[in-house]
């Protein structure tokens, strides 16, 4: 038989119509996605109270098409002490599917003092398959009473969409899409990095002030940076609030904040209406610094420089 298909009335043999949990999880379920149902703003699935760690009642999710839920009451989990150790230990609480008996249970992957957080094991059809729930950080020489639990899970929405507090929690696969809750960004994976395909944020150029204190060199009544879908734009009307600037001199205007900075250095142009000076602006991608150089004249205190509105692809 060159092809096998199921579920079907005659699979695995005529009239049987049976697909085992192993066949489903290792076949269709393996490509169906795993996660906790809900949203990153929900109460964390793992918490610590009174020196005891728990998986919260009502935590529901999917592992390779198999559902799990914590019913009736919070589920206690045992975390070993870190007494005698001179460094912090990171343990990983996971939901674990055991392929040998097709049962799901909560498991603590114990780290080593000073070591990295143990990664979930994600094997197909043999051993175990694990979904991360939380990192438990035990202080040096301490116990779970002094530990903190931080979510490491990602979530599945009502339309099977992925959601995560931050993209670094999610394995990157080509074509995978993800809503990043902490930033409000919509991302797509390439297999090695996340590309931003949707975001919406606003900021302003740092180093300026609406009112010109003595230490400020520039102020601006218009100072706006907007970022949408991977591109940022700057609109600014800088007014000189420091000393006069002579022709051919350069002044630092301000700094583009992190998360809005361009991928490459570039230049902008403008002029000073009061003196006729030409202005060349230089934008430095690595630091976000914008400098202005004045040609054929300078700019006096309280005078404006007119700069072109400009946009750029954001370097995330």
Order of helices and strands: HEEEEEEEEEEEEEEEEEEEEEEEE
Number of helices: 1
Q: Could you give a short account of the major beta sheet?
A: 8 strands, mixed
Q: Low-confidence parts lasting 5 or more residues at pLDDT below 50?
A: none
CATH architecture of the largest domain: Sandwich
**What's the alpha carbon Rg, rounded to whole Å?**
28 Å
Read across the widest sheet, the strand sequence of neighbours is 5-4-1-11-12-13-14-15
> What coarse outline follows from CA principal-axis ratios?
elongated
Main CATH class of the largest domain? Mainly Beta
Q: How far is it from the N-terminal to the C-terminal residue, by CA?
A: 51 Å
Summed up, the domain count is: 2
Overall description:
There is one protein chain. The chain has 316 residues and is mainly β. The chain folds into 2 domains: 21-160, Triple-stranded beta-helix, CATH 2.60.520; 202-313, Sandwich (Immunoglobulin-like). 2% of the residues lie in helices and 41% in strands. The chain is built from 1 helix and 24 strands. The chain has one helix at residues 21-26, and strands spanning 35-37, 46-49, 52-55, 60-63, 66-69, 75-77, 89-98, 103-109, 128-138, 148-151, 155-156, 162-164, 177-180, 185-189, 194-198, 200-203, 218-228, 231-240, 250-255, 266-271, 278-283, 289-295, 306-307, 310-313. The protein has an 8-stranded mixed beta sheet with strand order 5-4-1-11-12-13-14-15, with no helix packed on it. The longest helix has 6 residues, at 21-26. The protein is elongated and about 90 Å long. The protein starts with 20 loop residues before the first helix and ends with a strand. The model has no long low-confidence stretch (mean pLDDT 93).
């Amino acid at each position: 038989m060159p092809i096998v298909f199921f579920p079907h009335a005659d699979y695995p043999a005529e009239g049987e119509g049976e697909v085992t949990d192993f066949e489903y999880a290792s076949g269709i379920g393996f490509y169906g996605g795993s996660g906790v149902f809900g949203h990153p703003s929900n109460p964390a699935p793992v918490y610590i109270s009174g020196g005891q760690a728990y998986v919260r009642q009502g935590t529901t999710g999917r592992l390779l098409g198999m559902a799990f839920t914590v019913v009736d009451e919070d589920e206690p989990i045992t975390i070993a002490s870190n007494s005698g150790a001179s460094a912090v230990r990171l343990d990983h609480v996971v939901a674990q599917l055991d392929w040998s008996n097709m049962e799901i249970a909560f498991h603590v992957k114990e780290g080593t003092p000073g070591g990295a957080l143990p990664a979930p094991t994600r094997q197909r059809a043999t051993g175990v398959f694990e979904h991360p729930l939380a990192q438990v950080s035990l202080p040096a020489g301490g116990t779970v009473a002094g530990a903190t639990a931080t979510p490491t899970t990602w979530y599945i929405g009502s339309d099977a969409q992925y959601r995560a507090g931050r993209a670094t929690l999610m394995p990157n696969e080509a074509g995978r899409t993800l809503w990043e809750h902490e930033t409000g960004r919509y991302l797509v994976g390439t297999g090695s990095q996340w590309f931003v395909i949707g975001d919406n944020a606003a900021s302003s150029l740092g180093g300026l002030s609406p009112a010109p204190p003595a230490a400020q060199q520039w102020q601006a009544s218009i100072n706006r940076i907007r970022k949408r879908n991977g591109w940022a734009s700057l609109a600014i009307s800088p007014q000189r609030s420091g000393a006069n600037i002579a022709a051919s001199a350069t002044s630092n205007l301000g700094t583009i904040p992190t998360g809005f900075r361009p991928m490459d250095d570039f230049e902008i142009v403008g002029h000073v209406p009061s003196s006729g000076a030409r202005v060349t602006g230089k934008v430095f991608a690595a630091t976000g610094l914008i400098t202005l150089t004045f040609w054929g004249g300078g700019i006096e205190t309280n005078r404006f420089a007119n700069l072109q509105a400009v946009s750029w692809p954001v370097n995330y």
